[in-house]
Inverse folding.
């Protein structure tokens, strides 16, 4: 009788162990199947969907299109009694631009010979993409004036202030940008100095407008 009880117990344990093994095997299989059907965030199977890219056309999760532009414009005007020239360098990022212009002018007015050079800081905003319109303002930051009167009196000054504006049209061809614009500036030199104690001139005021052309590089 004792041998029968032992046999029944062993048979029961065998059946239970077999059932447990089957349940365990099924559970492991279901886990593996669910894991393989789940897309992991940083799976190596789809690297193009998991990278953070700064290259246009790369990852759909992050695209940085800086739309940066470098520009150069220049313009000249020449007549019998006047020579004027302007050159501008600027950088544009997401429409907002900052640059510097150098304006030079030589001429004769009513027997007075003058030589002027001004530098201005330009702030602007650019509208559009393939065809653009840039509008901005100018603020004279520094300059020099040499003025010679008909009596050979020489006046000099570096105390200058002035403002102006600019308007530029642009057309992009690939990474090249063709530019055409107009710049205007109004300025005044104060406290003109001379070596002669008897000579005195309070200020010198002038305005100038120039058409400019140039090119840009688009990134």
């Amino acid at each position: 009788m004792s041998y029968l009880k032992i046999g029944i117990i062993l048979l029961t344990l065998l059946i239970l162990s077999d059932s447990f093994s089957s349940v365990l095997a099924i559970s492991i299989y279901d886990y593996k199947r669910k894991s393989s059907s789940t897309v992991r965030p940083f799976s190596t199977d789809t690297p193009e969907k998991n990278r953070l890219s700064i290259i246009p056309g790369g990852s759909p999760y992050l695209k940085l299109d800086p739309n940066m532009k470098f520009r150069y414009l220049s313009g000249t005007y020449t007549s019998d009694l006047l020579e004027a020239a302007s050159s501008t360098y600027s950088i544009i990022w997401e429409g907002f631009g900052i640059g510097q212009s150098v304006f030079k002018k030589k001429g004769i007015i009513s027997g007075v010979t003058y030589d002027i050079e001004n530098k201005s800081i330009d702030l602007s905003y650019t509208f559009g993409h393939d065809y653009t319109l840039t509008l901005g303002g100018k603020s004279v930051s520094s300059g020099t004036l040499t003025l010679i009167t008909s009596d050979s009196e020489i006046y000099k000054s570096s105390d200058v202030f002035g403002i102006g504006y600019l308007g530029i049209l642009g057309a992009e061809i690939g990474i090249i940008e063709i530019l055409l614009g107009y710049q205007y500036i109004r300025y005044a030199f104060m406290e003109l100095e001379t070596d002669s104690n008897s000579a005195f001139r309070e200020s010198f005021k002038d305005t100038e407008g120039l058409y400019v052309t140039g090119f840009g590089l688009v990134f």
Q: What stands out?
A: The first helix runs from residue 2 to 37. The chain has a mean pLDDT of 79.
